Amino acid sequence: MTEPIKGIYGIDPCTLIDDDGQAYIYWSGRGMQGARLKPNMLQLDSEPVALGNFPDGMKEGPFVFKRNGKYYFTFPWVPKEGETENLSYAMGDSPLGPFEYKGLIMDQSPTKCWTNHHSIVEYKGEWYLFYHHNDYSPQFDKNRSVRIDKICFNEDGTIQKVTPTLRGVGITNATDEIQLDRYSELSKMGAAINYVDTTDYFAGWKTVLNARNAYVQYNDVDFGTTGLTSVSAQVLNGKGKLLVKVDDKIIARIAVKEAGLITVPVKDIPQGVHNLSVVSADKGKVEVDWIQFK
């Protein structure tokens, strides 16, 4: 392709190939628009259609997908000047609308990351949301990295709002170094994720627990069948007591007196895939890099 597609004046193109093989293209820039594509996917096969019935404010980056006979028109949206992008969506019965606005997929980022463009993909029966973030450039949000989280639907086809996590997706082996800072859930009080080295963001992150009952949860850990007898925690700083839990059951207690690798025995680890959490048992401040089972 050496020339732009004639008839398109905009940015952020997205294509959809429907079940009958017909391809469509969508874009933003002068409002949201869409059109059919010819089989070569290099020429429009219809006049552009203005797609409306969306909230006021800046909208861009459309992504369209089909699920159970419904078409989902999803887009980043800035409701008011001075805010950043959330992810929103509308639904319709035709690839070119009309679409009915349904609500938010994801709230604006608390770090004010700009932008939050995205895609939504089905893989092996599960749906996933890919989106932008500025983890590696917190002072400059244009150097974006990619995050991924699962996305779920209600019985009527509407989308359940996604709460961003650092966990991502997939199963982690218990014998790997489990980076707790890539959490599935973090307590609202007494827990934080900080950079290991603020002069080198690529050195990674650490989990900081500094209040009783503060916790970090890391889902989908595979403990295998048998043989695990200990858990090690790489502690970067602090003093305190930690509880290691599988689901809601305590399997180990770690007394932290100084930085270093601390290994303690474990008991009654269940087989298979479970959720792991580390909980502060006192008011001490402990900084953990990773934990690992052996």
TrEMBL record:
Family: Belongs to the glycosyl hydrolase 43 family.
Site positions (Important for catalytic activity, responsible for pKa modulation of the active site Glu and correct orientation of both the proton donor and substrate): 12
Keywords: Carbohydrate metabolism, Glycosidase, Hydrolase, Polysaccharide degradation, Xylan degradation
Keyword Zinc-finger among UniProt keywords: no
GO molecular function, one term: hydrolase activity, hydrolyzing O-glycosyl compounds
Coiled coil: none
InterPro entries, A to Z: Galactose-bd-like_sf, Glyco_hydro_43, Glyco_hydro_beta-prop_sf, Glycosyl_Hydrlase_43_Enz
Record CDD domains: GH43_AXH_like
The name this protein goes by in its record: Endo-1,4-beta-xylanase A
UniProt keyword Hydrolase, yes or no: yes
GO BP field: xylan catabolic process
